[in-house]
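Work Package 3 (structural annotation) set out to generate three-dimensional models for the target panel prioritized at the project kickoff. During this period the team completed the workflow that converts sequence records into discrete structure tokens, so that structures can be stored uniformly alongside our sequence database. As a representative example, we reproduce one entry of 102 residues exactly as it appears in the project archive.
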Amino acid sequence: MMKKAIFISSLFVILVLVFTTYVFMDSSVISVTEKVKVTTKDQSETEQWIILANEKKVYIADVSIWALLNEDEEYIISYESKKNSDKKILTSVVPRDFNGQF
């Protein structure tokens, strides 16, 4: 009876470890910084985004930052995305000709 309880406990611990590894393993964040031109910008009722010259769609959390960006201008943009996700979230933006200041 004791061996059976130890076996079931060990099996449960192994299953929990495998499950947590599976869930959290693909949550690594990839950060990218690039100098690129903003081709278009758009918004919905809940979110705003820009489309870059390399056809990447970058979501912007703050509408005031989105409002400051102009189409057909070049910026140094940093964004993050999860490893297995196509959604890119803006982390910083600097106009190309402002020497690091907005």
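The CA atoms of residues 17 and 88 lie 29 Å apart.
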